[in-house]
Design brief:
With 279 residues, the chain is α+β, with helices and mostly antiparallel strands. It is 25% helix and 14% strand. It is built from five helices and seven strands. The strands form three sheets. The chain has a three-stranded antiparallel sheet with strand order 3-4-5, with helices on both faces. It has a two-stranded antiparallel sheet with strand order 1-2. Strands 6-7 form a two-stranded antiparallel ribbon. The longest helix is centred in the middle third of the chain and has 17 residues, at 120-136.
């Protein structure tokens, strides 16, 4: 999401995280999970003014609008990258009158909507999974912030060369990284949860102060299914270890491991929607 896919190495270890990206790129990628699935352009400079208070540059960030998703559904993500490069170029060039005219009429300019990068269902599931990292996993230290709307993921590279924590709620995305300028290990116990998470907590404690909690609304098209945690198939009625997991309706398991027979009974409502709870 935050980088050109051609920059990723074409090898089998890619799934293990062998690609190198920057905190800036990772924050852009995590913003897709935070805002419900839309690709935005991060930017350093909001606007530039002269001593006479005249605006010579104004950032034009993409607008995330869930209700407007179909208005500009043909937006190409590559066009977003080009627009970002154009904005960077315009900062270094001499200001032209046309830029000022454009800024003056900015109030009447149609907003440019961010393109959807992943489905709302995918974004919600990613939020749920990364919330569990903080509730039950390697990010448990963040529980000291006493918030229920935080998601995140620790990251530790081979031999502890890099320690990461990337986390967010619906309003703030923060990525913390610890490492040396020269590629060498941090130390055998310096994992993401130990080295990077504490400074993420310190920052978010200030950034989220006074900000009400914001829980992502669960979209339609998701179902809770009682599954066998060993096989991933539907759990039988007498399985004491069964757990509930959330699936997109089209990916929900349809049979038990023992019988391979359909064991989901979906009762459509009058509106034709799928019930959220199956069992």
């Amino acid at each position: 999401f935050g980088f050109d896919i051609d920059q990723l190495p074409h090898n089998l270890s890619l799934s293990l995280g062998s690609a190198e990206i920057t905190p800036w790129q990772l924050a852009r990628a995590y913003s897709v999970f935070a805002n419900g699935g839309f690709l935005i352009n991060p930017y350093f400079i909001d606007e530039i003014k002269t001593y006479g208070d005249e605006v010579t540059f104004k950032a034009e960030p993409l607008v995330v609008c869930h209700k407007c998703v179909d208005i500009e559904q043909d937006i190409d993500i590559n066009e977003i990258e080009m627009k970002e490069e154009d904005q960077i170029t315009s900062i270094t060039e001499t200001s032209e009158p046309s830029i000022e005219e454009e800024i003056e009429s900015d109030a009447n300019t149609k907003p440019i909507y961010a393109p959807r990068a992943i489905s709302a269902q995918n974004a919600w599931i990613m939020n749920s999974m990364t919330q569990d990292v903080i509730k039950h996993g390697t990010g448990r230290r963040a529980l000291q912030l006493n918030r229920t709307d935080l998601s995140g993921k620790t990251g530790t590279t081979n031999d502890q060369h890099d320690a990461w924590f990337s986390g967010f709620n619906a309003n703030v995305v923060t990525v913390s990284w610890v490492g040396f300028d020269k590629f060498k290990p941090l130390g055998s116990i310096e994992t993401g949860g130990r080295a990077a998470l504490p400074m993420w907590i310190d920052y978010m404690k200030v950034a989220l102060e006074g900000m009400p909690e914001s829980i992502m609304e669960r979209p339609e098209g998701l179902v809770n299914v009682r599954i066998d945690p060993v096989t991933g198939e539907l759990a039988t009625a007498n399985n004491p270890d069964a757990i509930f997991e959330v699936f997109r309706i089209e990916n929900a398991p349809k049979s038990t491991a023992e019988s391979n027979q359909p064991d989901i009974f979906l009762q459509e409502s009058d509106s034709g929607s799928i019930p959220e709870q199956l069992f």
